Amino acid sequence: MNYWVGIDLGGTNMVCGLLDDQMNIVAKLKKPTLASQGSDDIIRRLAETVHELLEQNNIHKNDLQGIGMGSPGFINPDLGIGVFSANLGWKDYPVAARLQELTNVPVSIDNDVRMYVYGESIQGAGRGHKHVLGITLGTGIAAAVVSNGQLFYGGGYMAGEIGHIPMDGVTAQCGCGLVGCLETVASATGIARQAREALLDGRTSLLGDWFDSDSLARLTATDVSKAYDEGDELAKEVMEYTGRALGKGLAAAVTLFSPDCIVIGGGAALAGERLFAPMREEIQKNVIAGYWEKLTIVRGELIDDGGVIGSATFAKSRA
Ligand SMILES: [Zn+2]
Asked: Is pLDDT above 90 for 86?
């Protein structure tokens, strides 16, 4: 029987999944990434975890057909190189070759958002659609496009950084160095930041009862959702504004790529209709009718397993 390993490598945790040939997860192991110990050490512990998965599940190593991995940062999937990652310390590091040396199976690597969206498009909420645009809303926002089963990369494998499109009227400094990027608003971080700034400006809100100046830094997008559900005006305004900003950014992407389906994943997608209702309205308002009529917008299905399933599916597609 054929088995595959999918790895979702994050700055905090590494999740390794063992999958059968139909891409069902048989077992999973989650361990701390310990990125500060260096790239060689990350690879050594990944290889150990793969061996552990095989042993624990009585799988012979000859039955393992390949390993796929999603990693944050700029990745060159053709050469298997981690070009740059602030979280993991990749700097032109031969990730695939090193892991292949220690496991003796082919290793594929790509950017983590691409792997998540690839998983959703083939095995998750986007299945059955030929042209899928996927986004992840978390600390930031990023996108990937799968068209006819193929990922779109662009020059330098850098396509998809939708979070760094500057938006009219937004003045927040972004971590990328630009000002007014979409992700300073449309992300979990952006939602929390808007609420905090309004409170500091003296706005009255339930959130002001829940957080004082000492605890304000702990206010999250989830708190804004809770206040929204209690009918809080500020929380409603923040969600409305965020949803509309997201919709404007996505409208441009829809016109450019003409997807049949948009899949929305990541932690901030849990805001659900609070965010999606104004977002949908804004997309519809800003695209030609023909794009809107064929468009399905859905929340991601694979949630925490999207990266693992996507990476393994990607490895199988390249085998
Ligand atoms: Zn930016």
From this structure: no
Specify the DSSP element, H or E, that contains 112: helix 112-123
Centroid of ligand 1 to alpha carbon of 162 (angstroms):
9
Q: What is the pTM of this model?
A: 0.94
**Confidence at residue 304, expressed as pLDDT on a 0 to 100 scale:** 87
pLDDT tens for 253-293 read: 999 999 999 999 998 888 999 999 999 999 999 999 999 99
Instruction: Quote the ligand 1 centre to 215 CA distance (angstroms).
Output: 27
* Cα of 143 from ligand 1 centre, angstroms: 14
The reply to whether 85 and 98 lie within a common domain is: yes
How many angstroms separate the alpha carbon of residue 151 from the centre of ligand 1? Answer: 23
Helix or strand (DSSP H, E) at 261: strand 261-265
Give helix 233-257 / helix 221-229 axis angle, nearest 10°.
120
Task: Tell me which H or E stretch contains 80.
Answer: none
**DSSP state for residue 172 in the 8-state scheme:** P
Q: What's the CA gap between 24 and 123, in Å, rounded?
A: 10
> Does residue 161 share a domain with residue 296?
yes
Looking at the structure of the chain, the number of domains it has is: 2
Give the range of the structural domain holding residue 201, as residue numbers without chain letter.
Answer: 128-301
Centroid of ligand 1 to alpha carbon of 164 (angstroms): 4
Tell me, what DSSP letter sits at residue 38? -
**Geometric angle at alpha carbon 39, from 84 and 120, rounded to 5°:** 60
| CA–CA gap between residue 34 and residue 42 (Å, rounded) | 7
The overall longest dimension of the chain from CA atoms, in Å, is: 64
What is the distance in A from the centroid of ligand 1 to the CA of 169?
A: 15
Indicate the helix (H) or strand (E) that contains 52. Answer: helix 39-56
- Contact status, residue 191 vs residue 243, Cβ threshold 8 Å: no
